[in-house]
Every structure is written in structure tokens, then in C-alpha cells.
Write a structure and sequence with these properties.
Layout lengths: L1 E7 L9 E6 H76 L25 H41 L10 E4 L2 E4 L6 E4 L2 E4 L5 E3 L4 E9 L3 E7 L4 E6 L1 E4 L6 E2 L4 E5 L9 E8 L2 E3 L16
Antiparallel strand pairs: 1-2, 3-6, 4-5, 6-14, 7-13, 8-9, 8-12, 9-10, 10-14, 11-13, 14-15
Length: 302
Amino acid sequence: MPIGTIQWIPSSSSRSGRKFVLTVGKLRVFILAAAVFVAGMSALFFHIGSMNSSSMIDSRRSDEVHIIKGELFQLSERLADLSARLEEISTREEQVLVAGAGLNMDFSSLIPEESWTVEPPGDDMFRYIDDVEMELMLIERLADAELMAYDSLASFFMEKEDQLAHIPSIWPVDGYFVSAFGPRIDPFTGAVRIHKGIDLACNVGTPIYAPADGEVVFVGWTGGWGLNIVVRHSDRVSTRYAHCSAACTVVGREVKRGDLIARVGSTGRSVAPHLHYEVLIDGVQVDPEDYIIREGSDSAVF
């Protein structure tokens, strides 16, 4: 059933016009076609929008993954550096403990009272990485502090070790103790005199060893001491070895504790083979027994 007519009139007079009769059926078909077209275009735009949104999300996730990988790589580098520092601390700790052996030092303050733990990661990976980085920073600071502490202790013990190495603390010969430091009866005159060292009886040729690190400053003959040797261990401390049968060193030689420097004899003012041993502080004789680490009343450390 017609509901209207549409007349098309061309702009050129050479062309004939055309008339369209609009019916209910045609109108319905037109409306349906328009609805299908609009629905199709809407679906197309929605699909395109979804694809763009998904692409943006994937791109954002990809960027986040790259960022996380970068953060984790930096953390792994810091962990490797921290591991190297901890190994160095372990080495320093061993050196310090060896240097401080026997000094009854308490190292408990260098041991941390608690350790740090990081909770398992949740949904927020960036926050988790921030937490790990914070814990790592605290451990790095602790490692630096421990390393500084061990460096300080190592310097202290190295200084003390050097000082101890120059103290005459061992017996110079393997012999028998026969005369102490102080007043005694002179075997030649029978008068009471101050004995300025200790006498250790030995066979002729018994090795005499340096009781500490030092420098040989005198080798020669001097009056009643006979052939004697003087070793300077520090600005204040020296030792003398008298009545030797032979010198095994020369002036200017650096010696270490335990080095052979001479052999026992009976030269000079002596009644039998023995070593007359003196310790001098600022040029004044003191009791050598105050410096010797004993291993028995009459036995030498060697």
C-alpha cells in the first residue's frame, strides 16, 4: 500500500526525472537495513576499540615487565657486589681472629642480633621490589660497617703484632738456668756484685737465637764480655749476648725472632761455657725474666 511518492528531478534538462513510490514494505526494509548497518558499524567500532584497549594493556604490561626485569637485574648486581663484600669480611674476620688469638678479645658485638627477611611477593611487584631494595640497602650498610670495624681491628692488631715481634720474649738458648739477675757472689772475687743479666749454661757451640725481631748493632770483643753481640729491637729495647765462641751475623743485619745469631762459648771473664744474656731498656739492664715466656722453670721455649 503506497504511503507517499518521492519525485527525483535531475538538474540537467537532457535527463528525464524519476518517481519513487514509497510503500509500507519498502519503508520497513529501509528501516531494517539502516538498523543492521548501524548495528554492524557499532559492532565494528566496539571490536576496534577492544583491540586497541587490549593492545594498550599488552603494551603497558610489556613496559612493566621490562621495568621489572631492569629492577631485578640491578638488584642481582648489588647482590653480587654484596656477596663479594661478605667474602672479604669473612677473610678479614679470620685475619682478625688469628691476630687476636690469646688476647681474650670479645667479638660478639660484631655479630648482628637479628637478620632481615622479606615477605613473599604479592600482587604489587613494584612495591615488593622496593621492599627488597630497602632491606638490601640496610644489609649493605651493615656490611660496610662490619668491614670498617674489621679494618680498624686489623690495623690495631697489626700494630700490636709488630710491637710484640720486637719484644725479647723467648729463651735465646736451650740451656740450664744457673744465675739470676740481681745481687750475687762474684765467682772471681767472692764479693757481692750486681749481676746485670742471667746466665744459661750450655755446651760450647750451642746455637744462640734472636729472641725478637731487630737489627744487629754490635759484633765484637769487649772486656769481660768477651765476644758479644748486641741487637737493637726498638728505639728503647736492646739485648746483649756475651761469652760467645762464634758470631753468626754481622752489624746491620735485620734478624727475626728465632734466627741464629751466635754460638755459646766461654770467652772473656768466664769460668765455664755459658751465655750471659742481658735485656736493656734505654741502655739500662733490666731482668730478662720479666720478658721471657716460660715453658718451664729451666727449659727453653725451643
